[in-house]
Task: structure prediction
Amino acid sequence: MNQFEFFEKFPTEDNAIDFIVETKYKDGYVCPKCGCVHHRIYHQKYNHRYLYCNNCKSEFSALTGTIFEHTHLDLRMWLFAINLVLIARKGISGLQLQRELGMVSYKGAFRMLKLIRYAMGTEAHKDTFEAIVEIDETYVGGKPRKRNGEKKKSKRGRGTSKTPVVGVVERSSGRIYAKVALPNKEGKKLSGKQLLSILDEVCKSNTTVMTDQLSSYGILDGKSDRKYIHIKIDHSMTYSLGDGKHTNTIESCWAILKRGVYGIYHHISARHLQEYVDEFCYRLNHRDVGRAFKHLLGLGIGCVCARA
Ligand SMILES: [Zn+2]
Result:
């Protein structure tokens, strides 16, 4: 939603709290102290964040077990941040969010983004992709440059020292699932086993898998439990023959991820890369911002989350 719609929907802090509480407890709530079930929501009068049990007269926080649990900030700020993250196609930096919200500390804005990304990463895709999927890998990191002491520039593409990310796209729906593929114990990047395990996480049996000519995809030609049908595209010849054999869908997703990394985040360490990849995948999977707002709020409410 745009900013006008946002402030119309949430003119005060209480509106924001009510919206979160109603989303969380749409089927009523159980008092954590006496176990009594309430179908109507009783807010504590002095603070809407607290709910009240009229059986045992106790009160408890409505935000326990959500990404908002330990926050001292206004929840309206949180909802505004969630909306901004969803509409910023290439992502939003912590500093930008700090400016947008008029926050004093950068740390607070950064923590917000981290938790929103965490919620985005909890979306489940297990065994849902079918028919035709494309799989491809990309490398995220700084530009290949000559460093002190190195004689040659580091390579582009395969053989680079950047971090590989593997993505799978379902052709019919355009949904994407991507995972950072760190080298295995022997230091081998993108082994056949690793690629197969990523496919197995999301694809149903008998899915047609389009790949480029990376030798590791050869594992798909052997016997796999899920009986994938493997189509290999020779990029040295052509990118599409007009017969639907291509990996262009996933490559256009990489283009958006890379614009975000170059333009907004500049540097992402390999350790935290998965969180950013989750963010981009989430936005690509939920292009209708209005619906995504509700969906993401649901995820944020649903994840019992470690404190960031
Ligand atoms: Zn009670």
Summary: The CA atoms of residues 180 and 271 lie 9 Å apart. Residues 31, 33-34, 36, 53, 55-56, 58 surround zinc ion (CB under 6 Å).
